[in-house]
Amino acid sequence: MLYPSRLTQLAKNHADVVAAALCGVLLLFGWFTLQIGWVGLALLLLPAAYVVGGYESAREGLTTLFQEKELDVDLLMIVAALGAAGLGLWQREYSFIVDGATLILIFAISGALEGYAMRRTERSIRSLMSLTADTARELRDGQEALMPVNTLQVGDRVLVRPGELIPTDGVIQEGYSTLNEAAITGESMPVEKAIGDTVFAGTLNGHGALKLTVHQPPESSLIQRVIRLVEQAQTETPPSQQFIERFERGYAKVIVLAGILLVLLPPFLLGWSWETTIYRALIFLVVASPCALVAATMPTLLSGIANGARQGILFKNGAQLELIGQVRAIAFDKTGTLTLGQPEVYKVIAADSYAEPDVLEVAAALESSSEHPLGDAIVQAAQGLQWTAATDVQAFPGKGIVGTYHQQTVTVGNANFVSQTTQLSQTLIETAQVLEQDGKTVVWVAQGQQVMGLIAVADRMRPQVAETIARLRALGIEQIVMLTGDNERTAQSMAQSLGLDQVYANLLPEDKLHVIKRLQQQYQHVAMIGDGINDAPALAQASVGIAMGIAGSDVALETADIVLMSDRLEKLEQAITLSRRSQRVVKQNIVFALGFILLLLLANFGGNITLPLGVIGHEGSTVLVTLSGLRLLKG
């Protein structure tokens, strides 16, 4: 249930939406009362619609006029609407007042959409802030005290218990653990950290307690820099928006200047009476108002957005539906985007005298007692086999695990660890090298002093990735690159298999953002596709940020402009195709709208059009353009 205080807060946070909705209601009831002959009530409701829907536009237009000495479409809309209202009162044609209120409603809706974009930015920042710890366990004089993170200073010592977030960037002084750094690097494989290693705020500690030394102020931590980068990138006005704003102001200046000249010159140059001049000037204000031009774009984009939603493509605003079709370069995050983000057994290779199920069975018996994600992948792969957990299991962090299974000592781990008790086969060594060069992680399995075999673990590629990239190239995408926090060898292996143009590996979030900026300098319109918190700055900087709907983090979903709700990369092709189709329709509509406005203006100057016909022509062209835009609802 929403209580009054909650409703008040919602209204305050969404005042532009409330104003547009209320304007629409007042306009609807004003029109209805006019139809049934209640003129007095209509003349109260319709002006109220003007005030509610046009207040913000009038305020912005007057502010721009007096502070920046510029005219914009907001002020032109108010002038045209008031002109229609004045003419309606003058000739008692109250339907003209309805026309003016409709014009105001269109612009009120546009303002509400802009307000939504600003609130989305604020939600992105709040989501990022939730990843940071508020307090830290500071160690001082052998005592542990819970302190606010913002009070920590360089050199302070901090204790982080298993399962806790790292409160600030630091260097490990004591302890060993496995950290989930997905919030920073986006990689699904937890990273082993020991004495001397750097850890980042916002990452999740695994099974071991850590004692850290703060090596930089908390406000300079990596996660705080990510927050600032997202905020900066989202508030920068893209060149296309700047062009639109300049066009609107130029259009407004031309119409206002033409309106003034139309009032002043005809009596002297054409011999018109002042009554005829004012009448023609008011018709000019009505037919030259940008309703048809507005309708040429927004209904088309909204239809495209609805079409995309049916296909599992969520466009957060119409501008991004436009831009995705203009993209010339695309940057993919690796883990969780090109891959599924979950390690799994890629291949089992048995040594002579052993079978592959035997290797998997023994490894699973030990790894069932391990907390390592590679162990989880091995256990999952052995679900169909008959095995029991090993006993006397002892883990050696960063190396492997040893235990007893069927009364024999069993060792599972990396090559160096297993080679301490077992002679490795040269054949298997060469096989392991090939697998590692291909980006796989190799786990050795030994029983007693005999090597049983190898298990290769890898992050599985998403289905149809290669086909999707080929289709993107067919659409004319010039550059397709991969950005990843993973190592160079693994990244290059995947890039070669997919035929990518460029690979950027070992990247932190700010590195990804810098890559996007460099790509924009060369290709102008660049799309970034990611799923993690670490991708948020790059998603915000990109011309079009695209997030994976299922695998994506909350911050990535908030920051991105487009969300692939089903995590299917092949939807990218449909998004680009839909965008280009919408742009064709928009261009057709603009040509039609401008042509019809020009026709009405010529008819007005020729004296062959009355105000009712001008309004009918103006509104009729708007309706036709709107219906044209609705074509995108099909298919």
TrEMBL record:
Xref: InterPro entries: ATPase_P-typ_cyto_dom_N, ATPase_P-typ_P_site, ATPase_P-typ_TM_dom_sf, ATPase_P-typ_transduc_dom_A_sf, ATPase_P-type_domA, Cation_Transport_ATPase, HAD-like_sf, HAD_sf
Membrane topology: Multi-pass membrane protein
Keyword Nucleotide-binding: yes
PROSITE patterns associated with the record: ATPASE_E1_E2, COF_2
CDD domains assigned: P-type_ATPase_HM_ZosA_PfeT-like
Record-linked Pfam families: E1-E2_ATPase (PF00122), Hydrolase (PF00702)
Residue span(s) of domain P-type ATPase A: 131-231
Entry protein name: Heavy metal translocating P-type ATPase
Top-rank lineage group of the source organism: Bacteria
Protein family membership: Belongs to the cation transport ATPase (P-type) (TC 3.A.3) family. Type IB subfamily.
Organism per entry: Stenomitos frigidus AS-A4
Spans traversing the lipid bilayer: 19-52, 96-117, 251-272, 278-302, 590-609
UniProtKB keywords: ATP-binding, Cell membrane, Magnesium, Membrane, Metal-binding, Nucleotide-binding, Translocase, Transmembrane, Transmembrane helix
Subcellular location: Cell membrane; Membrane
